Amino acid sequence: MAHVKLHIPGPVEVSPKTFQALCRPAIGHRGQGFKDLYAGIQPQLQTLLSTKQLVYLSTSSAWGVMEGAVRNLVTKKVLNCMKGAFSDKWFDVSKKCGKEAEALQVPWGSPIRAEQIDAKLATGQFDALTLIHNETSTGTMSPLAEIAALKAKYPDVMFIVDAVSSMTALPLNFDAMGIDVLLAGTQKAFALPPGLAVFTASPAALAKAATVKDRGYYFDFVEFEKNAKDSMTPSTPSTPHIYALDSKLGEFFAEGLDARYVRHQTTNQMLRDWGSKHGFTLFPEAGFESITLCCFNNGAKPGGRAVDAAKLQKLVKEQGFLIDGGYGKIKGTTFRISNMGDETVESMTPLIAALDKAMTQL
Ligand SMILES: *Cc1c(COP(=O)(O)O)cnc(C)c1O
Q1: Tens of pLDDT, residues 69-85
Q2: Which of 312, 321, 324 is nearest to 348 (CA)?
């Protein structure tokens, strides 16, 4: 069957070059070859996240580290900032980890604002919060810098941030923000195949984790730090993914990070322009739209042209592109298209043409 190119907001399309990188010969994960591989990419990962902390490699999807962060860092009560399917789920996950948890819920499509978090933290009940920077289910980006600035007021609260669908698409200055955990699964904006997550933790987070007794084994942050100091991982990693990450980071720095950030803005603008041309409004609140995907209203709002999102998806798929027909409770009333990863103006142009053609067939 012919390949249908992924423009869903993750997993995203993986290039042949990246797939080839997975095929380098097998090596042992305790040998010098592996240490050289990890040590080679460590400075690039640190530059990417603007951090002096070690960046860890977790053979898991993002949820492994998201759950792990809760287990490692919550002893009192966690504030789960909720604005869409993934961030809402973090509340359930916290409770499933046996933690005291409270929801800070805003309507889907709204961002989380610093003053809302401030009001909750002022109660003194919380020792951690979870936040999703770019809520992929709704295409909404919360103002991370504004929220991170609260850390100065609440130094003992662990700020755990998911940047799964934004990391590599815009600058994330971990040390300067002063937050405690920053994580991403690499099948989104990194454009690797699913199966690897990267994360980093502040000295305060590592110190706190060391005092937490039931932090578990597989995602024990103390073990990650200890092993990373020797350029190793606690358990056997997916070495092929790390080869692919090495290849990918090479591409990032050859292009230049700033150029990469601009490229994401440009390709996202192509989608926004396409949407406006056809009368589609964006689902997120104005000013908080993602730059790695567009979540469009299917036209149910005034002035928009109502379309059957499932039918649009099918018509675009017949032309070789997979877009998303909406996620969770906004499935059917929204649809999402991703520009994450390797996408360029050239690679997006055929997608836009396919979308245009589909609109004539609806
Ligand atoms: C996809 C996604 C996740 C979940 O990632 P998995 O890799 O499936 O564990 C979490 N957060 C965000 C923002 C996502 O987009």
Answers
A1: 999 999 999 999 999 99
A2: 321
| Alpha carbon distance 181, 204 (integer Å) | 10
Query: 33: CA distance to ligand 1 center in Å?
Result: 30
Cα 217–218–224 angle (5° rounding)? 95
pLDDT number for residue 214: 95
Atom of ligand 1 nearest to the CA of 137: 15
Low-confidence residues of the chain: pLDDT under 70: 300-305
Closest CA to 337 of 6, 108, 1, 2: 6
What pLDDT does 332 receive? 87
User: Nearest residue CA, atom 14 of ligand 1?
Assistant: 164
Question: What pLDDT score does 52 carry?
Answer: 98
Residues near ligand 1 (Cβ within 6 A): 10, 61-63, 86, 132, 136, 162, 164-165, 185, 188
Name the token pair of 18: 């990246």
Structure token pair of residue 299: 């036209």
Cis, bond preceding 171 (omega within 30 deg of 0): no
Q: What is the pLDDT of residues 183-208, one digit of tens each?
A: 999 999 999 999 999 999 999 999 99
Distance CA 127, CA 212 (A): 13
Nearest ligand 1 atom, CA 134: 13
Helix, strand, coil share of the chain (percent; to 5): 45, 15, 40
Domain architecture of the chain: domains with CATH: 5-12+254-360 (3.90.1150.10), 16-247 (3.40.640.10)
Q: Which residue in the block uniquely carries the two structure tokens 């040590």?
A: 39
User: Which string of DSSP letters, residue by residue, matches 135-195?
Assistant: ETTTTEE--HHHHHGGGGT-TTSEEEEE-TTTBTTB---HHHHT-SEEEEETTSTT-PPSS
Ligand 1 atom 15: residue of nearest CA: 136
What totals of helices (H) and strands (E) does the chain contain, helices first?
13, 13
Residue whose CA is closest, atom 2 of ligand 1? 164
3-state DSSP assignment of residue 335 = strand
Ligand 1 atom closest to the Cα of residue 62 is 9
Specify the ligand 1 atom closest to the Cα of 185: 7
